[in-house]
């Protein structure tokens, strides 16, 4: 049964009556979350990574913030449980090599049982599925994107999720065993503070909708949908921050002038380094 602790989160999702647990209601909740709560690393880039306690994530969502997988799936799992869903948390591993396998711990994956069927549910991949996928082998089309699920050969009882070929990563695997949020504490510290972490080196914001994906990586805004892929550089701080609020629905009221300057300078330095690398002669 829902409690008042989740009212702000549900209001952020635009849902007044989530209804009883069902596959249809589950899909509606995932769609709403992906449309309104962005995958983003604003606070990590500013050197103040938020904790991954679900209660904190839920409050942040209600305040107009987002996060990465430990925040997004952690908070979403807490909401689903409060609504009466049977949720299991799993250790996952996102791989940038198409042949990469194994649940290396850099991702929190969820499965949900409802209406007698198990579903792969994930609001924390950034450019993953818009709706839950049946937890059975098969290929699934959602809008312009195609996904595939298969039983893992490296994680007994686990699953391999193959992302759309045009996505930011090709493969995520997760193990069968159930875990708790405490199992991700050490990896969260590494991902949110280590100098070589991609969450520190690159700014990213992603938002899914029924027709496609919005992606802000550094200072390049990308839209991917059935019409293809369009990119637009953002040349001013004003334009960049406006995109964060207008396209990604990220509330920036908590950022003062010093925060905005520091964030823009950091993103610009990384963008300039990326441009220089693109222009350098290839060996």
UniProtKB/TrEMBL annotation:
The keyword Oxidoreductase does not apply. This is Arylamine N-acetyltransferase. It comes from the Bacteria. Keywords: Transferase. Belongs to the arylamine N-acetyltransferase family. InterPro entries: Arylamine_N-AcTrfase, Papain-like_cys_pep_sf. The keyword Nucleus does not apply. Pfam families: Acetyltransf_2. One of its GO terms (molecular function) is acetyltransferase activity. It comes from Streptomyces ficellus.
């Amino acid at each position: 049964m829902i409690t008042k602790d989740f009212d702000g989160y549900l209001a952020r999702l635009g849902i007044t009556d989530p209804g009883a647990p069902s596959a249809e209601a589950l899909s509606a909740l995932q769609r709403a979350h992906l449309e309104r709560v962005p995958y983003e690393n604003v606070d990590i880039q500013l050197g103040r990574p938020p904790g991954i306690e679900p209660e904190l994530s839920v409050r942040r969502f209600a305040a107009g913030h987002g996060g990465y997988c430990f925040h997004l799936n952690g908070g979403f799992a807490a909401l689903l449980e409060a609504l009466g869903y049977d949720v299991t948390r799993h250790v996952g591993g996102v791989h940038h090599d198409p042949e990469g396998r194994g649940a290396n711990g850099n991702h929190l994956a969820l499965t949900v049982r409802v209406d007698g069927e198990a579903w792969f549910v994930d609001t924390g991949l950034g450019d993953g599925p818009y709706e839950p996928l049946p937890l059975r082998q098969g290929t699934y089309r959602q809008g312009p994107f195609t996904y595939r699920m298969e039983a893992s050969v490296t994680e007994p009882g686990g699953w391999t999720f193959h992302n759309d070929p045009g996505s930011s990563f090709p493969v995520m695997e997760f193990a069968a065993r159930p875990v708790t949020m405490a199992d991700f504490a050490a990896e969260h510290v590494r991902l949110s503070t280590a100098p070589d972490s991609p969450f520190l080196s690159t700014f990213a914001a992603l938002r899914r909708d029924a027709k496609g994906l919005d992606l802000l990586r550094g200072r390049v805004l990308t839209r991917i949908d059935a019409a293809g892929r369009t990119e637009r550089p953002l040349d001013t701080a004003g334009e960049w921050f406006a995109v964060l609020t207008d396209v990604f629905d990220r509330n920036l009221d908590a950022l003062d002038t010093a925060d905005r300057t520091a964030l823009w300078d950091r993103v610009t330095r990384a963008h300039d380094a990326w441009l220089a690398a693109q222009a350098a002669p290839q060996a």
